[in-house]
Amino acid sequence: MVVRQQGITVVGGGRGALGSAVVSRLAAAGRRVVIPTRHPGGAAAPPGVTEIECDLDDAGSVERLRAGVEAMGAWAAVVSASGGYAGGRAHEVDDAAIEAQLSANLLGPWRLVRAAAASMVAGGAGGRIVVVASRAAVDVAHGQAAYQVSKAAVLRLAQVMAAELRAHAITVNAVLPGTMDTRANRESMPNANRSSWVSTDSVAEVIEWLLSDAAAAVTGAAIPAG
Questions:
Q1: Range of 26's domain?
Q2: What pTM does this model have?
C-alpha cells in the first residue's frame, strides 16, 4: 500500500499533553501541521504549524476546517488526539456525564476523521488516519463506565473505517495508551505508583511511526502503548 507523505497533517487535540508531543515530533520532521482549536493564537506554534479555528462539537465548523486545510494543500494525514475523562459506575452515571464523554471521545473525533477521510477519498492519493483510544477500550475496570464505553466506540470506529477505506489506500489505526505521565494525571492521582505510566513522547513516537513509510501496510490495528 503506497501512501502519499506530502501534504498537510491535522492533529486534533494538538494543544493537549499528547497532541503537543505529536505536533512537536511531526514539525521537527518537517511536516506541515494544522491544529484545529477553538482559540487560535494562544501559545506560539512551532515553525511549520498552523492553527485553524474549529470546534469539533460543531459539524459545520469541522467542514470549514476541511475547506481551510484543502485551501492550503492536500489533506494527507490526521491524528485524533482529543478527548476527556470522567469517572462513574454504569448504574450510577447520569445522562450529562454520558453525553459529555461520548461527545469528547467519540463524536468530536468522528467528525474530524470523517472530514479527513472524505478529503482523502476525493483527492485519490491515499492517506493516514490515527485515532487515539485507550487501554480502557479493551481492559475493563470499575468506575470508568462512560469513559470506557466511549473509548471502545472510537476504537471500533477506527476498525470500521480501516475496512471501508482500504480500497482507497487510506490506512486507519488506533493507539491504545495506558495511563500517561501528564501534569493532569499527576495532580489527580498524587499518590499513584507512576512506574508503569507511559510518557507522552513515547506514545507520540508510535503515532509518528504509523504515519511513516515503514507502516504503509499496517491498517486496522489497535496498538497498545504503555
A1: 8-225
A2: 0.93
